[in-house]
Amino acid sequence: MSEHNHGQNIPSNRVRLTIAFGITSAILVAEIVGALLTGSLALLIDAAHMFTDAGGLLLALFAANLAERPANLRRTWGHARAEVLAATAQAAILLGVGIFIFIEGVQRLVNPPDIASGPLAIFGIIGLIGNLASITVLVSVRGANFNMRAAFLEVVNDALGSVAVIISAIIIATTGWMRVDAVVAMLIGVLILPRTFKLLFETIDVLMESTPRGLDLDSVRAHILELPHVLSVHDLHATQISTGLPVLTAHVVIDDECFYDGHAPEITDELQKCVAEHFDVQIEHSTFQLERLAHAKHEHATHD
Fold it and tell me: pTM here?
């Protein structure tokens, strides 16, 4: 049974994820030390965020390894969906971090602690340099699949967090306004949430086997019905296994004579060519059950 790789360049992705994970882990250690020395919420939140991102990158790396395994009789699509599961988990973690930031930020607005602005700026700059390095490593493959999108989102959010820490340090040093640390931390949360929700909704769509985004099943049905000898279409389903791997199935009722004159195989070819070429979402994996009109009485309850 062949492996469904679909050109996602998994070995290259795995190397890039390994590099990003190493950089993120090093920054995490530095920021934990910095948060303990300065007492900064912004830096502590960024360290906590970095911890979840390191875990997310490790999860992404694990998923990339799984996705490289070939299909077998038990998992006929291989482990392609591992990248969707990993991206969903990363998005859920980021959402949790964003909520924690707001709760902790409100508490710090009420009782702001004293913060050492000098060390805070130093550790913020260290974090930003490392995050920019991770962005450079991942930017060229960020659109490869859900997993890489989630990983890239992790490091971009880290970079934003580091910028926020630096800004917080500058404002504290120049004005002495300690509450800016909590304000900036909450701003990090605002920056995290929109893209996190978007990724979470998209991956949940895949897990719920929703119709792939950009594919109009009414248009698919109309194209199929335009083919010669096609009488009707029912039980039309379209789902997505993983990034770049949409699948479609349908029952197609055709003229009875097609089963006697040898024309049925040609209709199957035409159907598969139709869904592979005519739509924005190209469907390479399609399965059509050709039926005679009289077959309807043998079917279980059908739907459009």
Answer: 0.71
Assess whether 240 and 198 both reside in one domain. Answer: no
- Cβ atoms of 283 and 271 closer than 8 Å: no
**How far, in Å, are 98, 100, 104 from residue 25 at the CA level?**
20, 21, 24
CB 52 within 8 A of CB 97: yes
Burial of 10 (0-12, 13-18, 19+ CB in 10 A): buried
Which two tokens mark 45?
Answer: 């939140």
Rounded CA separation 242/147 (Å): 10
Two tokens at 270? Answer: 């035409």
Do 14 and 41 have their domain in common?
A: yes
Number of residues written out for the chain = 304
Q: Mean pLDDT, 10 residues at a time, over the chain (304 residues)? A: 46 78 86 76 68 77 78 81 83 80 80 76 85 87 76 80 83 86 78 80 90 91 93 93 88 92 90 88 90 75 62
Look at residues 26, 5, 141, 131 and name the one whose alpha carbon lies nearest to residue 80: 5
Tokens 């934990």 belong to residue = 32
Q: Which residues contact 92 (CB under 8 A, 6 or more apart)?
A: 200
CB 134 within 8 A of CB 23: yes
Any domain includes 172? yes
User: What CA–CA distances, in Å, run from 185 to 161, 164, 190?
Assistant: 8, 7, 9
**Are 138 and 51 contained in the same domain?**
yes
126 & 185 share domain: yes
Strand order in the sheet with 285-291: 230-240, 246-254, 285-291
Residue 240, classed as helix, strand or coil, is strand
For residue 154, give its domain range. 10-207
